[in-house]
Design brief:
This protein has 3 domains: about 15-85, OB fold (Dihydrolipoamide Acetyltransferase, E2P) (Beta Barrel), CATH 2.40.50; about 85-170, Orthogonal Bundle (DNA polymerase, domain 1); about 175-255, 2-Layer Sandwich (Alpha-Beta Plaits), CATH 3.30.70.1130. The chain has 6 helices and 9 strands; from the N terminus they run E-E-E-E-E-H-H-H-H-E-H-E-E-H-E. The protein has helices spanning about 85-115, 115-130, 135-145, 155-170, 190-205, 225-245; strands at about 15-20, 25-30, 35-40, 60-70, 75-80, 175-185, 210-215, 215-225, 250-255. Strands 1-2-3-5-4 form a 5-stranded mixed barrel. Strands 7-8-6-9 form a 4-stranded antiparallel beta sheet, with helices on both faces. A hairpin with a 3-residue loop joins strand 1 (about 15-20) and strand 2. The longest helix is centred in the middle third of the chain and has 28 residues, at about 85-115. The protein starts with 13 loop residues before the first strand and ends with a strand.
């Protein structure tokens, strides 16, 4: 993540974090957006009694947390996992994906211009964030011809290549479709097989989002510019997961639901 925010997050803010250390009664994470350390007490991991904290979190994995309390003098940031609902998780993951897309576009621009990535990113973001809350919102407006980068004070040599990259990679999202994916396995490592199948599903497209509904049931949502493209992505992504499960003697089934 190239855009690291300064200072401290706000109470109630949702953050993408990386689990770094798991203790008996707490979990330490790195807050990716602020490059700071946060703590999740065992009582904020999940509802109910927790016998094994490692059943819910794993070192090196990404988690979405909510800021509970901040002590700026001590530098302490208390976080919660259990107070983040599925809708909030999806929204935050989508936000992070948008940031990653922005960074990829700027990275491609830096290669074309043969410029160092970090200073170019700082130059571009510094100009845009004077007018916008996020780089992605600006890029959406550029893609829709609502704003020109040169009007934001960005160098003209950068503007042309960056604009071409934006229009090639950011397109209007017109439709959203979804369905329910059912996965199960009786193998001793069944949980790991299901996790792997879900990774294969999500790797097929950046426009796929996933949420767990319980009892081996997952909601798969695809956003695209039109229904033909959305159906294509939905079919290929779910088939990737199902085919993997079948290859491992597991079960996989997909059922469409009403449009999201």
């Amino acid at each position: 993540m190239l855009l690291v925010k300064k200072g401290f997050p706000e109470e109630g803010e949702l953050l993408m974090c990386t689990v770094t250390n798991i203790q008996y009664h707490s979990v330490f994470v790195n807050i990716d957006e602020y490059s700071k350390t946060g703590l999740i007490h065992i009582s904020e991991i999940a509802p109910g009694r927790i016998r094994n904290i490692r059943a819910y979190v794993e070192e090196g994995k990404k988690v979405i947390c909510k800021v509970l309390k901040i002590d700026k003098e001590k530098g302490h940031i208390d976080l919660s996992l259990r107070r983040v609902n599925e809708g909030q998780k999806r929204a935050k993951v989508n936000e992070v994906k948008q940031e990653q897309k922005v960074e990829k576009i700027i990275e491609m621009t830096s290669k074309s211009l043969k410029k160092e990535l970090a200073p170019l990113f700082e130059e571009i973001s510094g100009k845009i964030l004077k007018k916008y809350d996020s780089l992605y919102k600006c890029f959406e407006d550029v893609a829709a011809d609502k704003v020109m980068l040169k009007d934001l004070g960005i160098d003209e040599k950068v503007t042309k290549i960056l604009t071409d990259g934006i229009k090639a990679r950011i397109k209007e999202t017109g439709v959203v479709i979804s369905g329910h994916l059912f996965l199960s396995s009786l193998a001793p490592n069944g949980i790991e097989l299901i996790k792997e199948s879900l990774k294969k599903l999500q790797s097929t497209s950046e426009n796929v989002s996933l949420s767990y509904l319980g009892s081996g049931k997952y909601n798969v949502t695809v956003a695209a510019s039109d229904y033909k493209e959305a159906e294509k992505v939905l079919e290929s992504s779910t088939e990737a997961a199902i085919s993997f499960m079948h290859s491992k003697k597991g079960m996989g089934e997909f059922k469409r639901v009403a449009k999201a």
